[in-house]
Amino acid sequence: VQLVESGGGLVQPGGSLRLSCAASGFTFSRYVMSWYRQVPGKERRLVASITSSGNRSDVADSMKGRFTISRDNAKNTMYLQMNNLKPEDTAVYYCYRLLGDYWGQGTQVTVSS
Question: Is residue 3 within 8 Å of 11, Cβ to Cβ?
């Protein structure tokens, strides 16, 4: 199982980023997937999850209306569209598969002017 995040970077407050998680080594379309984030010194926190088919998803309350999770099972890829970013969104964002407890290496998102 391999999960590889990309798309992080430095963005100004109010800006947007789209993160990608490329999955390999398993049948991606069979698994619920999630995004987590972590700031130094704190635990990883759930950002959003999406069902295996992509027909249902959920986003943490503090990010609802700004973040959207999606997936393309034909491309074995999950996405996190982040809009109206705030400095408090600065974190390392991780792709996660619950079944088997698999994590990606993370991608840094920094929101700063």
Answer: no
Query: How many CB atoms neighbour CB 63 within 10 A?
Result: 21
The answer to whether 21 touches 104, Cβ cutoff 8 Å, is yes
Handedness of CA 103, 37, 50, 6 (dihedral sign): negative
d(CA 110, CA 15): 11
Q: Is 31 helix (H, G, I), strand (E, B) or coil?
A: coil
Q: What is the pLDDT along the chain (113 residues), one digit of tens a residue?
A: 999 999 999 999 999 999 999 999 999 999 999 999 999 999 999 999 999 999 999 999 999 999 999 999 999 999 999 999 999 999 999 999 999 999 999 999 999 99
The amino acid at residue 100 is: G
